[in-house]
């Protein structure tokens, strides 16, 4: 953890970890709970596909047609961003205000870039699924037209 803090808080990382003491697990737990709350309150997407039964949904999950990890990545991003803000506030008062502010900004930018790279992979996967579904619909439409020609 101290190595990651060195990216943002430079030589003040020891003071920040000392000021945090043993409270980091509690901060992370509260941030994950807040991240889940924010995700389900504001970020839950509208379901584009309605399932007739739980078994249909389970089949899609087990065949990796429904990705759970993109939602998990969003929740973790919110949680880590909140943790970095709390650590930044501690750094502003425990070490140096300016270094704490600059370190928080640097770490937030690094965190955002890392999670954007992860989300690009999920976006590619979602777009491929949409293309496949559109292709299947077009093929079904073509077969329906052939039935009427007879």
List keywords for this structure.
mainly alpha; elongated; 150 residues; 0% strand
Sequence-ordered SSE layout with sheet pairings:
Layout: H1 2-9, H2 13-20, H3 24-43, H4 54-62, H5 69-94, H6 97-149
Write structural notes for this entry.
The chain has 150 residues and is mainly alpha-helical. It has one domain (2-120). It has six helices and no strands. Helix 2 (13-20) packs across helix 5, helix 3 (24-43) crosses helix 5 (69-94) and helix 5 (69-94) runs antiparallel to helix 6. The longest helix has 53 residues, at 97-149. The protein is elongated. The termini are far apart.
Quick summary:
The chain has 150 residues and is mainly alpha-helical.
Query: Would you count the extended β strands for me?
Result: 0
Number of domains: 1
User: Which band does the percent of strand residues land in?
Assistant: under 5%
Q: Please estimate the helix content.
A: over 70%
Structural class: mainly alpha
Termini Cα gap: 70 Å
Determine Rg (CA atoms, Å): 23 Å
Order of helices and strands: HHHHHH
How is the biggest beta sheet arranged?
Answer: none
Contiguous low-pLDDT stretches (5 residues minimum) are none
Oligomer: single chain
The count of helical stretches stands at 6
- What's the rounded overall pLDDT mean? 82
Shape designation:
elongated
């Amino acid at each position: 953890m101290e190595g990651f803090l060195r990216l943002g808080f430079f030589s003040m990382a020891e003071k920040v970890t000392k000021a945090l003491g043993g409270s980091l697990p509690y901060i992370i737990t509260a941030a994950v709970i807040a991240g889940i709350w924010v995700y389900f309150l504001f970020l839950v997407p509208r379901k584009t596909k309605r399932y007739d039964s739980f078994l249909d949904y389970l089949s899609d999950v087990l065949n990796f047609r429904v990705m759970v990890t993109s939602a998990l990545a969003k929740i973790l991003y919110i949680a880590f961003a909140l943790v970095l803000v709390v650590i930044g506030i501690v750094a502003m008062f425990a070490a140096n205000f300016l270094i704490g502010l600059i370190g928080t900004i640097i770490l937030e930018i690094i965190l955002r870039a890392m999670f954007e790279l992860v989300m690009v992979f999920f976006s590619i996967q979602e777009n491929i699924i949409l293309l496949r579904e559109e292709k299947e619909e077009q093929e079904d439409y073509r077969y329906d037209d052939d039935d009427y020609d007879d």
